Amino acid sequence: MKNYFGYTDKLCVVTGASSGMGKATVEMLVDLGAKVYAIDLNPCTVEGITKFIKCNLASKTEIDETFKQIPEHIDCFFGVAGLSGAKTDYRTTFDCNYTANMYITLNYLKARMSKGGAIVYCTSTAGLEWKKFKKEQNKVVHAKTWKEVQELTKKLAASAPATFAYMYSKRCVSQFACEQSVEFAKLGIRMNNVLPGSTDTGMKQEFQDMVGSEEGLIAQAGLAGRLATPEEMAYPMVFLNSEMATFISGLEMLVDYTDTCLKTLGLKKNLEAVSATNPIICALAKKMMNKEANSHALKSGSDDKK
């Protein structure tokens, strides 16, 4: 059988490689004969990887140390790592989701990839409204250094809820991917973006708590009637970086089982069509979340006494 995917002996770098979509991606790449460098904070236990490198992607210093351990030539990059903001602060969430991808792309991938290389980011349908709110992202997306990005998001990091960093960072990655796909195309390097709908990963409970119930989370998975599996998000990423997709670049691939179509047709309310940086909205959201957190704490304390 012909090797249509063409991953044999290709050097692939995967972030968020230890669980969920990242782990599923690593497993597929190993099966397809790739040399996989797996990056995450937690150990990647997939047999057959070339190397696991522990790295906090919210740290520029750790990223620099990580890429010292990766060969000079990279064939494919999979930016899968992400945080919801439910268990991390705004700064950590935003830097892991956006700043790390920006920094790696401009400082390492541009120098270490050549014609025929391919990049895919795994963002979220939460980033789909980036075109509508482009003015909110422009300065951040056009910043070229880690320090610049941190300075531009300093006020948000101090005032907005950490979960808002999720939506804002995903919008930034979506815009960044669109703009940089044009620049990288000039070098013969493809760049695409996969936008997953609700998926059953280790962060399921975090997202479930945000929407209130598992049913609410499933309702964001279009007409599937269930959450997607991590493999169902890894499949399109592996496809897009393969030789099966050599004329696909600059694509925003929605993987949400018609959820966005329902919103586009007016059959479902688009709850994500809100500002991610408006001070009033951020303040109200933070106040509401603090109120809910206090309510849960009081309830938990009451239950403990029983």
Condensed summary:
By secondary structure, the protein is α/β, with parallel strands linked by helices.
- Over the alpha carbons, how many angstroms does the gyration radius reach? 19 Å
Query: What would you say the CATH architecture is?
Result: 3-Layer(aba) Sandwich
So how many helices?
A: 12
Number of domains: 1
Poorly predicted tracts of residues: none
Going by CATH, the homologous superfamily would be NAD(P)-binding Rossmann-like Domain
Major beta sheet, strand line-up:
3-2-1-4-5-6-7
Estimate the strand proportion.
5-15%
CATH class: Alpha Beta
Give the overall form: globular
User: Looking at CATH, which topology would you report?
Assistant: Rossmann fold
Number of strands: 7
Tell me, rounded to a whole number, the average pLDDT. 91
Main sheet record: 7 strands, parallel
Helix content: 40-55%
Structural class: alpha/beta
How are helices and strands ordered from N to C?
Answer: EHEEHEHEHHHHEHHHEHH
Task: Outline the fold blueprint.
Blueprint: E1 11-15, H1 20-31, E2 35-40, E3 51-54, H2 60-67, E4 76-79, H3 90-112, E5 118-122, H4 134-141, H5 146-152, H6 154-159, H7 162-185, E6 190-196, H8 204-211, H9 214-218, H10 230-240, E7 252-255, H11 259-264, H12 279-305
Parallel strand pairs: 1-2, 1-4, 2-3, 4-5, 5-6, 6-7
Helix pairs in contact: 1-10, 3-7, 4-7
Structure description:
By secondary structure, the chain is of the alpha/beta class. It has one domain (11-305): NAD(P)-binding Rossmann-like Domain (Rossmann fold), CATH 3.40.50. 47% of the residues lie in helices and 11% in strands. The chain is built from twelve helices and seven strands. The protein has helices spanning 20-31, 60-67, 90-112, 134-141, 146-152, 154-159, 162-185, 204-211, 214-218, 230-240, 259-264, 279-305; strands at residues 11-15, 35-40, 51-54, 76-79, 118-122, 190-196, 252-255. Strands 3-2-1-4-5-6-7 form a seven-stranded parallel β-sheet, sandwiched between helices. α1 (20-31) packs across α10. The protein starts with 10 loop residues before the first strand and ends with a helix.
